[in-house]
Automatic annotation (TrEMBL):
Family matches, as SUPFAM superfamilies: Probable bacterial effector-binding domain
Organism: Sphaerisporangium melleum
GO molecular function, one term: DNA binding
Top-level lineage group: Bacteria
Pfam families: Cass2
Keyword field: DNA-binding
Annotated protein name in UniProt: DNA-binding protein
Alphabetical list of InterPro entries matching this protein: AraC_E-bd, Cass2, Reg_factor_effector_dom_sf, YobU-like_regulator
Keyword DNA-binding in annotation: yes
AraC effector-binding domain mapped to chain residues: 1-149
Length: 166
């Protein structure tokens, strides 16, 4: 985990509103269907102005913290969202200071989020802002960018962060 300046990105994709409680109940869970839709062949072929081949997941509109409801949008980064394909939404992910967590390997996403949840539950510093978080899925794995409350200098060593990882 390191602190970085996350650049702004514009994402176009499919959205659902959910929570950890909803996702723990298979009869109500929505994220697997969202990811299946986004992962279908050609799901984003008709989105103009793609920036790269990565898949982005944006977590926004947090009700409170990691236990409350939030909206997840799964899509692609674009230069502009002038013409939205039917059924898709656009979200501008603001530039912020973020905690970057890298996940690699077959269970990259699950392991990265487990690390984040342990850190959050332990009251780790720096504190998450619960405003706009971002997952960037690429060939090597996934990078999570968790928005932080203002306090830290980018890329500076952080003794609280180092202790949390130990």
């Amino acid at each position: 985990m390191i602190i970085v300046d996350r650049p702004e990105v514009l994402v176009v994709g499919y959205a659902v509103r959910t929570s950890a409680a909803v996702e723990s109940d298979p009869s109500r869970a929505q994220l697997s269907a969202l990811w299946a839709r986004a992962g279908a062949p050609g799901a984003f072929a008709h989105v103009p102005g793609r920036v790269d081949e990565n898949i982005y997941a944006v977590l926004i509109d947090y009700e409170s913290d990691h236990k409350g409801a939030y909206t997840q949008i799964v899509g692609v980064a674009v230069r502009t969202a002038a013409r939205l394909p039917e059924g898709m939404v656009a979200v501008r992910v603001p530039a912020v200071q973020a905690l970057k967590v890298e996940g690699r390997g077959p269970q990259a996403l699950a392991e990265a989020w487990q690390q984040v949840w342990r850190f959050t539950e332990a009251g780790g510093l720096p504190q998450r802002a619960f405003t706009t978080d971002l997952e960037v899925h690429h060939q090597a794995g996934v990078d999570l960018y968790l928005a932080l409350l203002p306090r830290h200098t980018p890329s500076a060593p952080d003794p609280d962060l180092d202790a949390a990882q130990a």
